[in-house]
Design brief:
Helix content: 25-40%
Bound molecules: cobalt (II) ion
Distance between the termini: 28 Å
Largest sheet: 7 strands, mixed
CATH class of the largest domain: Alpha Beta
Strand order of the largest sheet: 8-11-7-12-9-13-10
Number of helices: 10
CATH superfamily of the largest domain: PurM-like C-terminal domain
Order of helices and strands: EEEHEHEEEHHHEHEHHEHEHEE
Number of strands: 13
């Protein structure tokens, strides 16, 4: 995610900067020529699982995701790491190996990086990719009538928080780890082949936060249908125990005013939609008349997709 840090930046001075701090999109985009633009992004975070190899792989998949979320294809990356000096070297090398193997799976070479010392481990990538400027996905590309498609289930935040508190089932940890390690590459490729214009990845700001960003950037209202939203198998169980990470409450505080819920939804159900997702799926807007074709193609390419709502005229987000 890229967030504005200052209002003093003047995008008019950089005509080749197609996407910068002035827009809420997932990566910066710099136009090279009419057919090619460079996509640049970075992300890093503290461990979300106990297994160092999986942690490295998840951090890498998450960093690369912002390039897929722009409709791009990553090709080059650098490691960024902050590691405690007393961390056993075999743990460090497992984190780095997890990242490197995930990058290789994506067709990305890690060409270097930088490590500093810190008390709590942090790891991620600086990633570069290419995108065709005419086939870019953005949060502002959603049109009324588009169907909203999600490519990974929700519940990563509650499940990993249960793991941190020692209350998670081993099976649930395996499930969430597998999903977080999964690249958004084939989903992004499908979106790009279809020439979709509206898309993002669902990460720290949750489905509703990122959904609201799309609604506001596109000038539409997003309607989600709760019963069609996919969740990890025990996300509801952990939500009822209120095992939410702090970010869920922050998301509700920031975005709650823009969301209206069906009164039949209980508080834990509403909160699950504010649950931060690490390395979550893509949220894509598919024109209604192309949905069937899109779903067929997704099945052929083994891209998991759920249709969870639609865009309509208006503003904000509604959950029915
Ligand atoms: Co990000
Ligand atoms: Co993102």
């Amino acid at each position: 995610m890229l967030r504005p840090v200052s209002d003093s930046f003047d995008p008019a001075g950089y005509p080749d900067l197609l996407v910068g701090m002035g827009s809420p999109d997932d990566a910066a985009v710099w136009k090279l020529d009419d057919r090619r633009a460079l996509v640049v992004t970075t992300d890093f975070f503290t461990p979300v699982v106990d297994d160092p190899y999986a942690y490295g792989a998840i951090a890498a998949a998450n960093s690369l995701s912002d390039i897929y979320a722009m409709g791009g294809k990553p090709f080059l990356a650098l490691n960024i790491a902050a590691l405690p000096p007393d961390l056993p070297p075999e743990i460090t090398s497992e984190i780095i190996r997890g990242g490197a193997e995930k990058a290789r799976e994506a067709g990305v070479v890690i060409a270097g990086g930088h490590t500093i010392q810190d008390t709590e481990p942090k790891y991620g990538l600086v990633a570069l990719g290419f995108v065709d400027p005419d086939r870019m996905l953005s949060k502002g590309g959603v049109r009324p009538g588009d169907r909203l498609v999600l490519t990974k289930p929700l519940g990563f935040g509650v499940t990993t928080t249960a793991l941190k508190r020692g209350t998670a089932d081993e099976e649930d940890v395996r499930e969430v780890t597998e999903w977080m390690m999964r690249l958004n590459a084939s989903a992004g490729q499908l979106a790009s082949d279809f020439g979709l214009s509206g898309g993002t990845d669902v990460t720290g700001f949750s489905l509703l936060g990122h959904g609201y960003e799309m609604a506001s950037a596109s000038g539409v209202k997003l309607v989600f249908r709760y019963d069609q939203i996919p969740f990890l198998q025990n996300a509801g169980h952990y939500a009822r125990q209120w095992t939410f990470p702090g970010g869920a409450a922050d998301n509700r505080l920031w975005f709650g005013q823009h969301v209206s819920f069906s009164p039949r939804l209980e508080e834990w159900q509403q909160m699950l939609l504010f649950d931060p997702q690490t390395s979550g799926g893509l949220l894509l807007a598919v024109p209604q008349d192309r949905l069937e074709d899109f779903l067929t193609r997704a099945k052929e390419r083994k891209v998991t997709v759920w249709v969870i709502g639609e865009a309509v005229p208006g503003q904000g987000v509604t959950v029915e």
